[in-house]
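User: These chains co-purify. Model them together.
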Amino acid sequence: DTAVSQTPKYLVTQMGNDKSIKCEQNLGHDTMYWYKQDSKKFLKIMFSYNNKELIINETVPNRFSPKSPDKAHLNLHINSLELGDSAVYFCASSPHLTGGAGNTIYFGEGSWLTVV
Amino acid sequence: DAKTTQPPSMDCAEGRAANLPCNHSTISGNEYVYWYRQIHSQGPQYIIHGLKNNETNEMASLIITEDRKSSTLILPHATLRDTAVYYCIVRGGSGGSNYKLTFGKGTLLTVNP
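Assistant: Joint model of the two components:
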């Protein structure tokens, strides 16, 4: 069983469209994240949710709106897609919010978004 | 911003030990050293973490210097499937900005046959 799963794995869409990426974790974790990896391969955090509450929003444009219906799911909705949104988006989860021993963050396999 | 410094690339012969260094000279007392790797087209994979003692698991060993300003990840018998970008990350123990992993550029380890 995949611990952190994302769908779709690949998504090609036109500029201006609205799309969503779904994420689910079956680890019983309280905290979930979205990371973005751009063409230069830098991995940067976008959002963090803890028990459905937004904790981190790393100056991401308002076109990106995360939604957490329950603590096992964190979906990413993107409005009015732009060419620069093309990237790989990784969902992740950890047992709880704070760091320390045992609070390892586990990543999904990524969703490849291409905006044309 | 990443608090670690790693060489951009390293090579290793298959079957030999791969030793990946990391400098984290500004690490503070409650910060852990985490190692992740990212194999091409996959999500980052957790390898190991430590605070001040050396750690070993089924994947690797982590050696942290006594002053905690640097560490080395050791893959004892590298295989071709270990070719990946390896990230050394410093992450706090509690409170503050510990919610996230801040990735640097990492080290591209290439294991050669």
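Residues 2 and 102 of chain B are 6 Å apart (CA to CA).
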